[in-house]
Amino acid sequence: MTGAGTAIWGVGTSAFGKQTSLGGPRLAWQATVEALDDAGLQASDIEAVYAGTVFGDPGTVTRCLQQIGIVEVPVITIENACASGTSAFHEARESVEMGRYERVLAFGIETMTAHFDGAISPIASDPDGAQGYAMPSIYGMSATRYKYEFGVTDEQMAEVAVKNRRHAMGNPRAQHHKTVTVEQVLGSRMVADPITLFQCCSIADAAAAAVIGPLGGSQDPRGEVVIRSSALRSGRLWDHTTDKVWGWDIVADTAARAYDDAGVSVGDIDVFEVHDAFTIGEIITTEALGLCELGEGGRLVESGHTSLGGLQPVNPSGGLLSRGHPLGATGLAQIAEIVWQLRDMAADRQVPGARLGAVETMGGGTAGIDGNACVVTVLEQVG
Amino acid sequence: MTSLTTTPPERAGADPRPELAIHEGRVLLTGSRCGDCGYPQAINPPRCPICGSHAIATATFGPKGTVFSSTVLRIPVPDRTPPFTLAYVDVDEGPRILAHVDGPDEALVPGSEVVLSGWSEHGDPVVRRSGP
Ligand SMILES: [Zn+2]
User: Fold this and answer.
1) Distance from CA of B35 to the nearest CA of A (A)
2) Number of domains in chain A
3) What is the pLDDT of residue A120?
């Protein structure tokens, strides 16, 4: 099947929220069984598993999948920070593309509430983490820089949270089902100046999965979604030579590769799921994806271009700001959302007529580099 | 609020943080510079990440620098009491490092001039505003 193309045959996710008592395996079963059913496959059909998890205990993925019958196959676990789930997706797609397997499970899971009460603890072995540098600080610094350099306003940043929480009202699997106003967002507790609490994603427990195989090879090819391209890379060095905020170039570089491989330009894409772990992150990412010029991301969200009903909706699911961010599961939940959008199954949050969609996930936590990993994938409706 | 001491802390062998040292009364950053392309780093690796050169020489940088950006972290993190101010500082002729900021709990404006000043009670590098 090499060269004929690769498709997503089925997707599934658990609900997203603080659900410590469910434990990893139950979350995994919800996501995986839904994805298998969606693909019309049995567990015994799966030839290989690529999985993403960050804080999971050793053996997490096999512990989650064995009792539903995914056994006697290669199970490869990938840690790539926030992009772990999409990195697993990327490798799963690559393995089908190269003809190595024909029925592959891409899987992601994180049980955050088992490890943290609030923000993720800084990494003690990292030059920045050892200084007590929690993740909100990097985004606080990006926001400080954007206010200074481009005049991005607190209200524009808050608008990202307002938009995504509004979108999530149509997503029954999101953690947060309550709209917020700009005033509420800016009035919430300060976390890392100028980022307030409602501008930070919550932690969550969840799993998500996708079944990947050759294009046209499933029982119901009309339900397949074509993977036009997928790009994965680590960042450049992030040092004194750059005035770009952290994470800008890695997203731009990865997106350029993904668009090029798919033969599309950003204007062709109808709907995006992007990494909005913090409001300023979505502003930076929309710029780096080419939806607007450098420094224009604040005005872009304010214009309504990226809202449902706008020309190119971003995060119709409500994004990480509404789902919460279970690291390993996040990327595959983004994939699932775009698959549902392209199949016209997204109900109250549907982007009408969406044919081409893109997913972007970016993960960090390592000092001195412009992101540990970024994945951008371009997906297309069949037919 | 970040405390400040000018007594060098004991460094554990694998402490990954930028290393400061006092030279003739000035606090300087210890690191390396590539002998071929001049690339400065706060660490001393065996190869230059830019040009691949093996000619990496120990170097010191500072004490002055310029703030790239800054924030005040106001949530609890293990072993530290919030709030505390952080900044990415481009040390003059040297690398960009993260440092704690001695002063009020207020983010520094990008472009502010700072000077390497010592260590926090936890042994973190500390800068202080020096210019306007
Ligand atoms: Zn060099």
Assistant:
1) 18
2) 2
3) 84
- Nearest by CB to B95, from A130, A195, A240: name it: A240
**Do A135 and A265 sit in the same domain of this protein?**
yes
- How many CB atoms neighbour CB A292 within 10 A? 20
Do both A349 and A273 map to the same domain?
yes
Give the number of domains in chain B. 1
What lies within 8 Å, CB to CB, of A206 at 6+ separation is A13, A14, A15, A16, A17, A19, A27, A31, A109, A110, A323, A324, A326, A329, A333
* A201 flagged as catalytic: no
Closest Cβ opposite residue B16 in set A119, A126, A140: A126
Within a domain: B112 = yes
b/e per residue B5-15 (b: at least 16 CB within 10 A): eeeebeeeeee
Q: Do the domain assignments include residue B10?
A: no
Sheet with A6-13, edge to edge strand ranges:
A75-78, A48-52, A104-111, A205-214, A6-13, A225-233, A373-381, A356-363, A271-273
Report yes or no on A245 lying in a domain.
yes
Looking at the fold, whether A46 and A112 belong to one and the same domain comes out as yes
Measured distance CA(A132)–CA(B80) in Å, rounded: 7
Catalytic choice (A167, A275, A325, A374): A325
Contacts of B107 in chain A (CB under 8 A): 140, 144, 193-194
pLDDT tens digits along A192-220: 999 999 999 999 999 999 999 999 999 99
Nearest to B67 by CA among B131, B3, B1: B131
Chain A contact for B75 (CB, 8 A cutoff):
yes
| CATH code for the domain of B50 | 2.40.50.840
Query: Do residues A235 and A210 both lie within one domain?
Result: no
Distance CA A90, CA A96 (A): 10
Residues A313, A233 within the same domain: yes
Tell me the CATH number at A177: 3.40.47.10
pTM assigned to the model? 0.97
pLDDT above 70 (res A287):
yes
- Tens of pLDDT, residue by residue over B26-59, are 999 999 999 999 999 999 999 999 999 999 999 9
Nearest to A13 by CA among A276, A203, A210: A210
Domain ranges, residue A364:
129-200+229-381
